[in-house]
């Protein structure tokens, strides 16, 4: 019994070690530019895409290969062996004007792969921007609702005090409690939305290391927020669309990719067409004949050499393949024109959306917010001094909450519309004129 109690005491007093505690993920708070850098360095999908560049480089070496030689031996038997020499040598097929065409095609494919990887990198940057902005937006909404919850708690307290002093009916307290409970459910939902946005943010970064990235920016209302969000303020005078589209067509990856596909199709046509050119097969080696099979009785030996044309397009001249390759060129040219046309429409729509988002944001800041803040202060003071009922105040507070949340969404829309504009112009360092 004594031994059992001693063991029990040791178990109770020993520290508990949680297995795998070293595997707990750590949280790393980052600004937008730091989040982009983390994604470019660690994103698994980007790493997988970059491997395609190495594959394409190896394909150039493969396309430029020489044909492997063959070893030939001729040993005649029977009567033929008494009159024909034995031979051993090497033969090699020499391709005519085919290696260079294949190499050019592979080089053009490498350029296409590099453009695709560049597009993937750029798209990743834009995805990180969008996920970061959405995360901060959800945090801002949560902060707004939590502030409204605190104000509603103050209102409930005021209603309780006034009800106890018989200044207002008890129904005011019930209305204040209902409004508070409604805000509590909205706060809980907002917390879930923040966690969802955080998970999506880390999904975009896609870092295999045990790190959870979180935004350092908590609210859209902080100082220098436009600079930290890498977005121009809505006070800038933005250029006309005609000044943008020409630059956009030069930068857009889909247009450059479509143009590169024309080059690939043309080089493929060259490769297919050159199949009609016959190749040369060269052979050479050592030949000998034993003395007992010669007229003189002497051992005879020497070299032999030969050449022949192979793959002569006599029965089949590759016309279907050549016609299909020519049609591929036409198809690529049409896709290039289509990419340009779609690019103009995409950039136009993104630019209009951005300008509209800027107008809405300015309207919120110059007109709506100032008036709504003044309105809610007057309503609170009016109720506290018995000049209005609680129903009117609750209606005012709900309207004010909607305005603040709407302002947050307007900010989010402004930031996201700028990201969308950069995505459509494929220019993350879009230069703006001086601010007005």
Strand order of the largest sheet: 2-3-5-6
Total DSSP helices: 11
**Spatial gap, N to C terminus:** 88 Å
Structural class: alpha+beta
H/E element order: HEHHEHEHHEHHHEEHH
Q: Poorly predicted ranges (pLDDT <50, ≥5 residues)?
A: 1-23
Roughly what percent helix? 55-70%
Total beta-strand segments: 6
User: What integer is the average pLDDT?
Assistant: 83
Largest sheet: 4 strands, antiparallel
Descriptive report:
- It is a single chain.
- The chain is α+β, with helices and mostly antiparallel strands.
- Helix content is 66%, strand content 11%.
- It is built from 11 helices and 6 strands.
- It has helices at residues 2-13, 32-42, 44-63, 79-83, 99-164, 171-205, 225-228, 242-251, 253-273, 319-384, 390-425; strands spanning 26-30, 70-74, 86-94, 211-215, 279-289, 300-310.
- It has a 4-stranded antiparallel beta sheet with strand order 2-3-5-6. It has a two-stranded parallel ribbon with strand order 1-4.
- The longest helix has 66 residues, at 99-164.
- The relative contact order is 0.13.
Could you give the topology of this structure?
Layout: H1 2-13, E1 26-30, H2 32-42, H3 44-63, E2 70-74, H4 79-83, E3 86-94, H5 99-164, H6 171-205, E4 211-215, H7 225-228, H8 242-251, H9 253-273, E5 279-289, E6 300-310, H10 319-384, H11 390-425
Helix pairs in contact: 2-5, 3-5, 5-6, 5-9, 5-11, 9-10, 10-11
């Amino acid at each position: 019994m004594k031994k059992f109690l001693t063991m029990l005491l040791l178990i109770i007093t020993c520290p508990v070690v949680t297995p795998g505690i070293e595997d707990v993920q750590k949280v790393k708070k980052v600004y937008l530019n730091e989040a982009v850098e983390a994604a470019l360095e660690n994103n698994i999908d980007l790493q997988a895409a970059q491997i395609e560049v190495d594959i394409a480089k190896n394909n150039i070496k493969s396309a430029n290969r020489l044909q492997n030689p063959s070893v030939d031996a001729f040993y005649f038997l029977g009567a033929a062996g008494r009159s024909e020499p034995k031979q051993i040598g090497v033969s090699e097929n020499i391709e005519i004007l085919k290696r260079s065409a294949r190499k050019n095609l592979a080089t053009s494919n490498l350029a296409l792969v590099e453009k695709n990887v560049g597009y993937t990198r750029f798209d990743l940057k834009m995805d990180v921007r969008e996920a970061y902005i959405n995360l901060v937006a959800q945090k801002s909404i949560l902060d707004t609702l939590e502030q409204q919850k605190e104000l509603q708690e103050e209102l409930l307290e005021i209603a309780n005090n006034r009800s106890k002093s018989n200044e207002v009916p008890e129904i005011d307290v019930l209305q204040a409690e209902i409004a508070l409970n409604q805000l509590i459910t909205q706060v809980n939902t907002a917390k879930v939305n923040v966690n969802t946005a955080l998970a999506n943010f880390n999904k975009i970064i896609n870092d295999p290391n045990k790190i959870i990235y979180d935004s350092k920016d908590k609210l859209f209302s902080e100082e220098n927020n436009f600079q930290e969000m890498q977005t121009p303020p809505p006070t800038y005078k933005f250029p006309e669309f005609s000044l943008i589209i020409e630059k956009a067509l030069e930068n857009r990856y889909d247009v450059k990719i479509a143009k590169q596909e024309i080059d690939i199709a043309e080089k493929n046509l060259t490769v297919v067409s050159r199949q009609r050119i016959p190749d040369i097969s060269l052979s050479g080696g050592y030949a000998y004949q034993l003395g007992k099979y010669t007229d003189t009785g002497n051992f005879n030996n020497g070299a032999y050499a030969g050449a022949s044309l192979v793959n002569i397009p006599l029965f089949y001249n590759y016309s279907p393949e050549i016609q299909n390759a020519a049609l591929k060129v036409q198809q690529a040219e049409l896709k290039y024109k289509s990419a340009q046309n779609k690019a103009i429409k995409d950039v136009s729509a993104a630019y209009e959306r951005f300008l509209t988002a800027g107008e809405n944001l300015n309207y919120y800041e110059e007109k709506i917010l100032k008036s709504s803040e003044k309105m809610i202060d007057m309503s609170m003071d009016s109720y506290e001094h018995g000049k209005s009922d609680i129903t009117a105040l609750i209606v005012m507070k709900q309207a004010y909450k909607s305005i603040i949340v709407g302002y947050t969404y307007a900010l989010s829309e402004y930031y996201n519309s700028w990201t969308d504009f950069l995505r459509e112009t494929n220019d993350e360092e879009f230069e703006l004129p001086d601010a007005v």
